[in-house]
Amino acid sequence: MKIQVDYDLCESNAVCVRAAPEVFVVDESDRLMLLANNVDGELLERVKVAVRRCPRHALKLIEVTEHPALS
User: Fold this and answer.
1) Which residues, 6+ apart, have CB-to-CB distance to 4 below 8 Å?
2) Among positive and negative, which fits the CA dihedral 41, 46, 48, 51?
3) Exposure string for 33-46, b = 16+ CB within 10 A, e = fewer
């Protein structure tokens, strides 16, 4: 799954950082940064918590589908 951030909505309040610090960090400029774009397994479960808890609904998970190379 891929994480999408709507930076127009994000207030960088760090709720997501508390849920999944391996994925989210707020930098010195108070801007949310992603440490990983794609997540799976146990990490995915924590990112789902972060998405649900985001007070501004600025986070989304998008299913990534790989397309086979065309011959």
Assistant:
1) 59, 60, 61, 62
2) negative
3) ebeeeebeeeebeb
Extract the tokens encoding 15: 């709720």
User: What global pTM score does this model have?
Assistant: 0.86
Question: Residue 65's pLDDT is what?
Answer: 83
Q: How far apart are CA 38 and CA 4, in angstroms?
A: 10
In the prediction, which pLDDT does 52 show? 98
Tokens 């992603």 — which residue?
34
Closest CA to 46 of 31, 24, 68: 24
pLDDT digits (tens, 9 = 90+) for 22-56: 999 999 999 999 999 999 999 999 999 999 999 99
